[in-house]
Amino acid sequence: MERPSYYITTPIYYVNAAPHLGTAYCTVMADVQARFRRSAGFDVLFLTGLDEHGEKVAQAAAEHGMTPQQWCDSLVGDFTDLWKRLDITNDDFIRTTEDRQTVSVQHLWDELLANGSIYKGTYDGWYCQPEETYFTDTQVRQANEQKSTSVDVNHREIAKAAKRAPEDAPLCPDCGRPLKRVQEESWFFKLSDYQEPLLELYREHPHFVEPEIRRNEVVSFVEGGLKDLSISRTSFDWGIPLPFDEKHVTYVWFDALINYITAVGYGVETPEAKAEFARRWPAQVHIVGKDIIRFHCVIWPAMLMAAGLEVPEEVFAHGFLMVKDDGGADVKMSKSLGNAISPDTVCELLGVDGFRYYFMTDVRPGTDSSVSWGRMEQVYDADLANSWGNLCSRALNMSAKYFDGKTPELPRGWAEEANPLRAIVEGDGREGLYERYAAAMGSFAYDEAAAAVMELVHEANHYIEASEPWTLAKDPARAGELAQVIGSVLESIRVTAHLLMPFMPRTSTEVLSRLSLAEEAETTDLAAACAWGGLTGGAPVAKGAPLFPRLAQKKG
Ligand code: MSP
Questions:
Q1: Is the pTM of this model over 0.85?
Q2: Complete DSSP assignment for 366-379
Q3: What pLDDT is stored for residue 140 in this prediction?
Q4: Does residue 72 surpass a pLDDT of 50?
Q5: Distance (Å, rounded) from C-alpha 464 to C-alpha 461?
Q6: Tens digit of pLDDT for each residue in 287-328?
Q7: Which of 9, 12, 26 to mutate to test the pocket of ligand 1 (most atoms within 8 A of CB)?
Q8: FRET pair for 194, CA 20 to 30 Å: which of 143, 345, 492, 508?
Q9: What residue ranges define each of the domains in the chain, with the CATH number in brackets?
Q10: 468 CA distance to ligand 1 middle (Å)
């Protein structure tokens, strides 16, 4: 049977600076979902990449004495190497300077020209260069009026950082930095035609924008009315030229969004490319930060509708990682504010798996969260070192001690015997652990999924205490009971390793291989792999080094 396609994307990142914790957060979130879906039998295509065009990149390149292409090429490795270090399993990596992107963008231009979705006019309005976003007079006036009555700390901080700003320029409604007035000939996309179709999309497909708070934001933005969108530039040339008007280059966001269809063969007229496109599009989910939902939930579906293409099934918007400023207020972590933490610094402390586990399970995707070293250490110690790591080390040690370095020979019918661990895995009157976990994972409630798994880990630690294997081991008449206890604990460890795999692939693979079950790590039937009773008796068990060394030891 053909496996269902699951196409998942991250935003393509600007090449203006090296990746930081915020960008890594988004990529790891997508990786966890991609890994989960692969293990649940989907045929996954996981795409990430770089957004390399636009005035900002051209300017950064000039400041460094390079051509824009040289500048982009010099930064690609910062991203691809980091993704390798963080065990990101993207299947494709797209750069908007690749030929395939030019083919696809120009194809879309031709389509939109042919069907009357675009026209030539004059753009006169405000431009936020750092955000590569255009605003109308009304949008700017409203935002600046609001801000003069309630100044947001975040905006104030950002404005402070924008030293080049002329004092009297109005501020960007999104990021608070000063805007530029621009007037130029431009091609326009008839976005104003899509107000009703978009509202209908949000009504008919309530999961198109997740979580709900973002959906409400998008709906009220669209209800406020849509203006046609300026989608080409003549004031610089670092972009994809229009096939029919070469002095114009494509507006960077119009170019960037198209990457999602380029990667699955849009614009390529071969039968193979067409088949791939039909199989992969629409994408199941675009993961984005909450700052770029207007592009993904308003402009992008309108562009697709105009081109006669389907819209993605879901856009999931995560919140921001924040840090405390000098006054103790939470501000968005960003390169331009100089408050960005490098992912490598966190990995040095927690290890790659600890990094992934902390950011994916302690922060509810969808909400903002303040990054705190104290909290990182707390979660690492409580969940990983003292619970999951401790459970593995106790159970593996006892297998070494009582069963000659093997899993116990399991008594007949052992898996049918009632015990509190089997009850958690199988549900015992409520949904089974896999079902609860899968429902949470599928809706990006990674915190809930991990909490469900941790219940099993805690219960297994209690079960060891309550059944006292060290007492059972003293009485040869109770050998069957001892095998049952250690077998059930090892079985819980096996199931836990599977369920934690998307978060901590290194540790889970290691645990399965210590149980002589390395081949299970590649499962594509997670539900079956997590069914109680999969452990085989008499298999060699390796004690190994502690999975999560104490932080104090590591730091020292
Ligand atoms: N190039 C555009 C995206 C085009 S997608 C067709 C862009 N790039 S970006 O590099 O500025 O940001 C990429 C993503 O990183 C955004 O989703 C943004 O929300 C995310 N983050 C940047 N800083 C962040 C935090 N401090 N916390 C969490 N994510 C944040 O926008």
A1: yes
A2: TS-EE--HHHHHHH
A3: 87
A4: yes
A5: 5
A6: 999 999 999 999 999 999 999 999 999 999 999 998 877 777
A7: 26
A8: 143
A9: 5-114+252-321 (3.40.50.620), 118-230 (2.170.220.10), 372-555 (1.10.730.10)
A10: 51
